[in-house]
Amino acid sequence: MVFYLIGPVIWQLITSLKPNAILTSLPPVLPEKVVFTHYVSVFTERPFARIILNSFIVATSTTVYCLAIGVLSAFAISIFDIKGKALFLGLVLSISMFPPIATVSPLYLLIRALGIRDTYLALIFPYATFALPLSIWVLSSFISEIPKELYKAARVDGCTPLQALWKVLFPLAAPGVFTCAILVFIFAWNEFLYALTFTTTVQSRTIPVAIALFPGLHEVPWGEMAAASIIVTAPLVILVFVFQKRIISGLTAGSVKG
Amino acid sequence: MESRFGYLLIIPALLTIAVVAIYPIIDVFILSLYERFLTLGIDEFTGLNNYLKLVNDARFWNALKNTAVFTFFSVSLELILGMAVALFINRPFSLQGLIRAAVLLPWAVPTVVSAKIWAWIFNTDLGILNYALLNFGLIDADLNWLGSTGYAMAAAITVDVWKTTPFAALLLLAGLQVIPDDLYKAASVDGASRWQKFRHITIPHLKPVIMIVLLFRTLDAFRVFDAIYILTGGGPANSTETLSVYAYKILFQTLDFGYGSTIAVSVFAAVMLISIGYISILKRRGGLLS
């Protein structure tokens, strides 16, 4: 079972370290000598450093923006008994069901009209919006565990509402916020359809688009593609290994109650 | 209690949703009533013409059929395999952390990358799959996995199953862990077999979680784009073309925004019908979507 789950990735890793001469030879021998030529050429012959930077900026900004508006909403739902809470949650839930293909043509026209094609903004706003349901879901499952009395006590002690949220409740919600940040970051890092549609220049692409549109002069550059795949997957593997418990608790938050 | 302040807090989220989600979903309906080609400068209101075209479009019905086949087999296999993985992990043993991380790995790999990884495995001449099958004597000649109508859909389903079984497994595992141990102990005392315990304790307790897994996975599989676009581009001969892929091609390769939007609306309508169906089942069962 473990072999089935990680085998394909290991195979890609081995491919990325093979010199071109034996890349296509079968039986699939292990390389006698590990070479990093594919990793080097990804950076020297393609603008891969720029592309990684794009992905990093987009994913980070998305995470910050999405969590900022998500935390505020989760506070509003869990701490303040706002009327229309069910309506708001229903709206958020239905957003999560929107198929990306159904919003891509109007968003494309909007982005073109605003003149922000090929900019980070064209990706950050859609990503943050469609990651918002997941964030609100996960965050409110964490925040609803915080006793409301803490907020009232802080208010009695003379905090303004904002101070009470920021200084008293936010630190308690931090583990949930962190968990949520990992999930949103991974979503934004991996997204493909919007990135494919809203970027037109090589310089503005994100990693999934760059890998999808990997050009080969004569033949498919399997070695470089494998190297690029490993580079984009590596940060995620590290996240998964270090934070697996948090990721699992975030993914299953709210869907299972005892 | 200070509910006015509470409303202030949801304003940023509401504004964002209004501009980036609600406006586009309304606009896509409007676009679907127009004949609109971006490059040709054609922009004309044609009413329901595009919908008439849709119901008479054989390629649309083919894409709908492909989407349904893909969704049915992917989700069924993910549920079965996810259950197997969850039952396997749900026991105390050493290296559990390592196994859990291994389970998460395919989930974390970007879909684009997993499609490329599998495209390399499926490669006709150089792929490791054909090599292995030939060596084990299971096939006589290399199979053209991605290039023949018989196998391409199976290949696409394989990629999706590999990528999303972990998600199903994790939700099911979380469900397994809240089933009280006493139930199994009592059943053992009464002499229940393993299968009987699974059938009469595990499955009934897991039902709400199974429904949620089915809901999430069905919605996701029905919207599938990345995996198929990368792996086969919808080919060969449109045999793997799903609704999202078809809509994308009409929108951004033909630049026919009117008809492309009509196909996109059909995806939206189908997804909404599916979720209403699931949610009404969940509600009738007193399920957990609160």
Polypeptide structure, described:
The complex is a heterodimer of chains A (258) and B (290). Chain A is mostly helical. Chain A contains twelve helices and no strands. In chain A, helix 1 packs antiparallel against helix 12 and helix 9 packs antiparallel against helix 12. Chain A is elongated and about 75 Å long. The mean pLDDT of chain A is 88. In chain B, strand 1 (34-37) and strand 2 form a beta hairpin. Chain B has one domain (44-284): MetI-like fold. The radius of gyration of chain B is 23 Å and the shape is globular. Chain B is built from twelve helices and two strands. Chain B is mostly helical. Chain B has helices at residues 3-31, 49-55, 58-89, 96-108, 111-122, 128-135, 149-177, 181-189, 194-222, 226-231, 243-252, 257-284, and strands at residues 34-37, 42-45. Chains A and B meet through helix 1, helix 4, helix 5, helix 6 and helix 7 of A and helix 1, helix 3, helix 4, helix 5 and helix 6 of B.
Give me the secondary-structure topology.
The complex is a heterodimer of chains A (258) and B (290).
Chain A: H1 2-16, H2 20-23, H3 37-44, H4 48-78, H5 85-97, H6 100-114, H7 121-143, H8 148-156, H9 161-190, H10 193-198, H11 207-212, H12 222-252
Chain B: H1 3-31, E1 34-37, E2 42-45, H2 49-55, H3 58-89, H4 96-108, H5 111-122, H6 128-135, H7 149-177, H8 181-189, H9 194-222, H10 226-231, H11 243-252, H12 257-284
Antiparallel strand pairs in B: 1-2
Helix pairs in contact in B: 2-12, 3-7, 3-9, 4-7, 5-7, 7-9, 9-12, 11-12
